[in-house]
């Protein structure tokens, strides 16, 4: 762990504002995973963000902009997030979003397959499109026209844009998690 959690009592005024913003965001999501340690300090990508609030604020604003008023189904979003997390091997992202994916109705076998970097056959047609778009964009190649058209047919232009921005966001988070060697909480399997 390169950036340990910061106890709430040790936060600067600027960090405290960001800490409160993150906690409000997490409370609104009702997350089925551990996001604080035994002292109440934020864990996961948040200790890194708290150390660099000027860099984190725009990232969090971007997240809330894409999340608020989402047109994508929650399951579709989680398929894309887990696909990206598996490609990067971002342990905390896979831990946290596996819990979210299970909570929104993806089966254990589908979640396990996505975490393992597979393309589970039990995905719906829209979930398959989300997986394929995420996997393709992760590879660094342009999105083929046929897959782009399939995404627009499945999600509309707004939903396709949201999917692409979501993939970009979770690619960014994966990079942050990996660069700073963010550990899993003690309750992770």
UniProtKB/TrEMBL annotation:
Gene3D superfamilies xref list: AhpD-like (1.20.1290.10)
Cited InterPro entries: AhpD-like (IPR029032)
PANTHER family: 4-CARBOXYMUCONOLACTONE DECARBOXYLASE FAMILY PROTEIN (AFU_ORTHOLOGUE AFUA_6G11590)
Protein name: Carboxymuconolactone decarboxylase family protein
């Amino acid at each position: 762990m390169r950036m340990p959690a910061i106890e709430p009592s040790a936060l600067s005024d600027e960090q405290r504002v960001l800490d409160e913003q993150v906690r409000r965001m997490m409370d609104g999501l009702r997350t089925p995973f551990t996001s604080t340690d035994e002292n109440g300090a934020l864990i996961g990508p948040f200790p890194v963000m708290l150390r660099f609030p000027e860099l984190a604020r725009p990232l969090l604003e971007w997240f809330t902009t894409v999340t608020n008023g989402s047109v994508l189904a929650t399951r579709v979003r989680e398929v894309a997030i887990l696909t990206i997390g598996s490609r990067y091997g971002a342990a905390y992202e896979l831990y946290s979003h596996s819990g979210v994916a299970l909570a929104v109705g993806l089966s254990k076998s589908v979640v396990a397959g996505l975490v393992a970097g597979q393309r589970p056959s039990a995905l719906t047609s829209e979930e398959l499109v989300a997986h394929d778009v995420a996997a393709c964009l992760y590879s660094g190649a342009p999105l083929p026209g046929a897959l782009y058209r399939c995404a627009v047919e499945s999600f509309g232009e707004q939903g396709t844009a949201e999917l692409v921005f979501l993939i970009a966001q979770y690619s960014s988070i994966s990079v942050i998690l990996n660069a700073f060697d963010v550990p899993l909480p003690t309750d992770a399997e």
